[in-house]
Amino acid sequence: MDKYEILKKYFGYDSFRNAQERLIDHILAGNDTLGIMPTGAGKSLCYQIPALMLGGITLVISPLISLMKDQVGALNQAGIHAAFLNSSLTTTQYVKALSFAKQGRYPIIYVAPERLVTEEFLDFALSVNISMVAVDEAHCVSQWGQDFRPSYLKIVEFVKRLPRRPIVSAFTATATKEVKEDIIDILQLQNPTVVTTGFDRGNLYFSVITGKDRYGLIRSYLKTHRNFSGIIYCLTRKQVEEVWERLRKEGFLVTRYHAGLSDNERRTNQDDFIYDRAPVMVATNAFGMGIDKSNVRFVLHFGMPKNIESYYQEAGRAGRDGEPAECILYYSSKDVITNQLFIDHNQDNQDLDDVTRAIVRERDEERLKKMTFYCFTNECLRDYILKYFGEYGSNYCGNCSNCLTQFEQVDVTEIARALIGCVASSRQRYGTTVMIDTVHGANTAKIKSYRMNENPYYAVLSKVPTYRIRQVLNHLQLEEYLFVTNDDYAVVKLTMKSKEIMEENKQIMMKLAKALEKPTKEAQVRSRKKRGGQLGKEAFTEKEESLFEKLRALRTETAREEKVPPYIVFSDKTLTHMCVVKPKTKEEMLKVSGVGEFKFEKYGEKFLSCIEKFESTQN
Ligand code: ADP
Ligand code: MG
């Protein structure tokens, strides 16, 4: 079977996403590979599909038991034999799993890193053909990351013990340079192919709401989103307790999670959430690592986290299935004080010397400041986050609370004409910064050495701030009125469309942030309500809505019988697609995204007859 057939047959998907195919091809060509992609981008498939094609066994290293259980469960549901080896197994279970593994029953085996160099495991590993070691959550090898796991350092030791070096692939959602370098160095990847995708999560709606009665706002959010699963993050354990208690008393199906609870209770509560018995989780930031639940439709923050990294990671747990999901931060000025207290009383840096501690502290304060700015900016929230991570956003996303309330159409023709005129008159030889500096009239050595101060467009936009000129330049580039070469010099060139502006007097309009104060709380809440029904099933009619509910109930029932979380039976996305396709036959059902052959054998008829029954009651 080729990769496309595997994708369709086992996973039920028609096409690969962006980077997936590249990563898979690199692995199949025998190269070490590093994939850096945001949460929900589909990293698992990038090693699971090659694992089925390489022959031999792929070992997947994963930091958490819950992650392994989830992924192995999903693979088995898809008809792929996989197993995990970690401390959740009894000795008997472990020995049995190893002996099945030796017989070659599992092409994919998930292993906890601390197991790798134990005698038993090495004995097994040396007796079979290991074709790949795939390191999931690879940032755990780095001390720079937030999730450093010393046991990840054993991976290299293990690989060295093998008679034949397997392909080593690594995957993470952490994008910083230090972490990336650490992964390559510490895992000793050999000439790795690195594939990095953009960090934008287009399906996530971002919003900041400033209000006094945060509890009340959250409660009314839950009321209008009753059947959805979501997470409410609080800053402190005490807050978790309060919010959880109040919501519970008001009859919401909520559970809670923080470091002050017993292991046992944490495990139970986490399971309740994953299995949708308690679809809403109230938690501190201790919750979430290793949660692959794909149908989380909202992440609400009761309070501002300490930095953008944490916020994006936590908010990013929404909408892993790619369906619309909402990330709302409920801000109060008290949050800054709470976070400052955390920084003041940070116990993590006890063994650092004074100078280093001061540096760390300064860095933390700087990050807190950037987080606070996020709550006040009038610019596009998504753009703000992406810029923080060093990516160019497109200035206006149309899917955040600022874009929906804070933007206005502005005529930017004059700026556009100046830029294009400048590019033409300097014969398309220079980069973006030279163009911007010229029209703005910068008096720098570089400008003089290029004699751009003699250009007819020099200083024609001296009153327009450079950031605005850059936004317009980006816009012109996106709309293909200008082209920027993709090399080190990033030279600005004209396009076929450039003359529409210069010769045909075309007007250029662009959405830009209003230079105004934030609107009142009420205005923001209203704008959010307008989007009310958007979650998951925006374009649904009432009929489709009720079919979705029927299918969802069937999924819950099926999951209970199978003892797996509902989203592992079928994702929200798959159910949504089913409501659109309304399949009548097996062939039609197999066209639904996420329905592979194996899943069809297991559940297909059940869901078909549910749809048929529903349709017959409609006519
Ligand atoms: P990551 O590990 O990158 O956070 P996952 O591997 O858990 O992401 O995948 C997230 C979701 O995307 C899963 O529900 C998965 O089934 C789905 N998915 C992955 N690849 C595809 C694809 N090519 N088409 C449709 N859905 C996909
Ligand atoms: Mg993953």
Would you give an account of this structure?
The chain has 619 residues and is an alpha/beta fold. Helix content is 47%, strand content 14%. It contains 27 helices and 17 strands. The strands form 4 sheets. It has a 7-stranded parallel β-sheet, sandwiched between helices. A 6-stranded parallel β-sheet has the order 8-13-12-9-11-10, sandwiched between helices. A two-stranded antiparallel sheet has the order 14-17. Strand 12 (296-302), helix 12 (308-315) and strand 13 (325-331) form a beta-alpha-beta unit. Helix 13 packs antiparallel against helix 14 (354-376) and helix 18 crosses helix 20 (466-478). It is globular, with a radius of gyration of 27 Å. The two termini are 43 Å apart. Magnesium ion binds next to helix 3.
Secondary structure layout:
Layout: H1 3-11, H2 18-28, E1 33-36, H3 43-54, E2 57-61, H4 65-77, E3 82-85, H5 91-102, E4 108-111, H6 119-127, E5 130-135, H7 154-161, E6 167-172, H8 177-186, E7 193-196, E8 204-210, H9 214-224, E9 229-234, H10 237-249, E10 254-257, H11 263-274, E11 280-283, E12 296-302, H12 308-315, E13 325-331, H13 334-344, H14 354-376, H15 381-388, H16 401-405, E14 407-411, H17 413-425, H18 432-440, H19 445-449, H20 466-478, E15 482-484, E16 492-494, H21 498-502, E17 509-513, H22 521-530, H23 542-562, H24 566-569, H25 572-581, H26 586-590, H27 597-618
Parallel strand pairs: 1-6, 1-7, 2-4, 2-5, 3-4, 5-6, 8-13, 9-11, 9-12, 10-11, 12-13
Antiparallel strand pairs: 14-17, 15-16
Helix pairs in contact: 2-3, 13-14, 17-18, 18-20, 23-25, 23-27
Bound molecules: adenosine-5'-diphosphate and magnesium ion.
